[in-house]
């Protein structure tokens, strides 16, 4: 068998392709663990803390899963911040915004009955659309609880959620 000289460009292309394939395998194989920064980074994808995600709504803060939910703090330019808990989707859906696998609950103490401003609902729907692809790619909902499960497992934490923008450690 004769050793044929290899084209440098073809060699580099094959190396890049192999590296890309291994990166995809590693990324897919790494399971996001609740409580770690990678989980939060994967969920938020291109959404940055301190930056707008919809019109004049900013993501003020974000916390990795605590008590079965990712906790986000959002605010409109001149309004008070609002706590939004991202949980695994339940049936029936009761949250103002949701994806195929997640629900976004506003934790305002209104027990789901308080009327929300239309622009807040639109902002949350936009946020849900942005989370949809990240959740589907990394199976993030598997590590979260439904809102109902959280009420049963963490009643004290849930009772305080409306008054605490930042969650307490469990």
Number of DSSP helices?
A: 5
- Note poorly predicted spans: 15-32
- What summary fits the major beta sheet? 6 strands, antiparallel
Strand content: 15-25%
- Write out the strand line-up for the largest beta sheet, numbering strands in chain order: 1-2-3-4-6-5
What oligomeric state do these chains adopt?
Answer: single chain
Element order, helices and strands? Answer: HHEEEEEEHHH
Question: If you had to describe this structure to a student in words, what would you say it looks like?
Answer:
- This protein has about 170 residues and is an alpha+beta fold.
- A hairpin with a 2-residue loop joins strand 2 and strand 3.
- It is about 40% helix and about 20% strand.
- About 10% of the residues have low confidence.
- About 30% of the residues are buried.
- The N and C termini lie far apart (about 65 Å).
- The longest helix is centred in the N-terminal third of the chain and has 22 residues.
- It has 5 helices and 6 strands, in the order ααββββββααα.
- It is globular.
- The protein has one domain.
How are the elements arranged and paired?
Blueprint: H1 8-29, H2 37-44, E1 52-54, E2 57-66, E3 69-76, E4 82-88, E5 97-98, E6 102-106, H3 118-138, H4 147-153, H5 155-160
Antiparallel strand pairs: 1-2, 2-3, 3-4, 4-6, 5-6
Short description:
This protein is α+β, with helices and mostly antiparallel strands.
